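Researcher: We're teaching a course module on how sequence relates to structure. For the next exercise, students receive a sequence and then see the predicted structure as C-alpha coordinates, so they can try to spot secondary structure elements on their own. Here is the exercise chain.
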Amino acid sequence: MNTVLLLAQTEIDQNTITPGLLGFLAVAFVGGVLYFLMKSMRTKLDNVRSGALAEPAAAEGAASGTAERTD
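Model: And here is the predicted structure for the students to work with:
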Protein backbone atom coordinates (compact mmCIF):
# COMPACT_ATOMS: atom_id res chain seq x y z
CA MET A 1 0.00 0.00 0.00
CA ASN A 2 2.88 2.40 0.77
CA THR A 3 4.33 1.76 -2.68
CA VAL A 4 1.09 2.77 -4.35
CA LEU A 5 0.92 5.95 -2.29
CA LEU A 6 4.57 6.73 -3.06
CA LEU A 7 3.99 6.26 -6.79
CA ALA A 8 0.85 8.40 -6.65
CA GLN A 9 2.75 11.41 -5.30
CA THR A 10 3.39 14.08 -7.88
CA GLU A 11 6.29 15.62 -6.01
CA ILE A 12 9.22 13.37 -5.10
CA ASP A 13 11.51 14.25 -2.22
CA GLN A 14 15.01 14.54 -3.70
CA ASN A 15 16.67 13.26 -0.51
CA THR A 16 15.04 9.86 -0.83
CA ILE A 17 16.36 9.01 -4.30
CA THR A 18 19.90 10.43 -4.42
CA PRO A 19 22.89 8.27 -3.47
CA GLY A 20 24.72 11.20 -1.94
CA LEU A 21 28.42 11.56 -1.32
CA LEU A 22 28.90 7.95 -0.20
CA GLY A 23 27.37 6.62 -3.41
CA PHE A 24 29.52 8.91 -5.53
CA LEU A 25 32.69 7.87 -3.69
CA ALA A 26 31.82 4.18 -4.09
CA VAL A 27 31.29 4.55 -7.84
CA ALA A 28 34.46 6.64 -8.21
CA PHE A 29 36.47 4.03 -6.28
CA VAL A 30 35.18 1.17 -8.45
CA GLY A 31 35.93 3.21 -11.57
CA GLY A 32 39.49 3.89 -10.41
CA VAL A 33 40.09 0.24 -9.58
CA LEU A 34 38.76 -0.82 -12.98
CA TYR A 35 41.01 1.70 -14.73
CA PHE A 36 44.15 0.33 -13.09
CA LEU A 37 43.00 -3.27 -13.59
CA MET A 38 42.46 -2.72 -17.31
CA LYS A 39 45.83 -0.96 -17.60
CA SER A 40 47.57 -3.89 -15.92
CA MET A 41 45.69 -6.42 -18.05
CA ARG A 42 46.67 -4.61 -21.24
CA THR A 43 50.35 -4.69 -20.24
CA LYS A 44 50.17 -8.41 -19.51
CA LEU A 45 48.38 -9.14 -22.78
CA ASP A 46 50.97 -7.16 -24.73
CA ASN A 47 53.70 -9.29 -23.12
CA VAL A 48 51.86 -12.49 -24.03
CA ARG A 49 51.31 -11.33 -27.62
CA SER A 50 54.93 -10.31 -28.13
CA GLY A 51 56.09 -13.64 -26.69
CA ALA A 52 53.71 -15.56 -28.96
CA LEU A 53 55.03 -13.70 -32.01
CA ALA A 54 58.66 -14.35 -31.06
CA GLU A 55 58.22 -18.13 -30.55
CA PRO A 56 57.41 -19.08 -34.18
CA ALA A 57 60.32 -17.02 -35.48
CA ALA A 58 62.72 -18.69 -33.05
CA ALA A 59 61.35 -22.13 -33.90
CA GLU A 60 61.82 -21.51 -37.65
CA GLY A 61 65.39 -20.34 -37.16
CA ALA A 62 66.29 -23.40 -35.07
CA ALA A 63 64.59 -25.81 -37.49
CA SER A 64 66.33 -24.46 -40.59
CA GLY A 65 69.73 -24.47 -38.93
CA THR A 66 70.31 -20.75 -39.43
CA ALA A 67 70.73 -20.04 -35.75
CA GLU A 68 73.69 -17.78 -35.05
CA ARG A 69 76.68 -19.30 -33.35
CA THR A 70 78.51 -17.44 -30.65
CA ASP A 71 82.13 -18.58 -30.54
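Model: If you want an answer key for the exercise: The chain has two helices and no strands. The CA atoms of residues 6 and 42 lie 47 Å apart.
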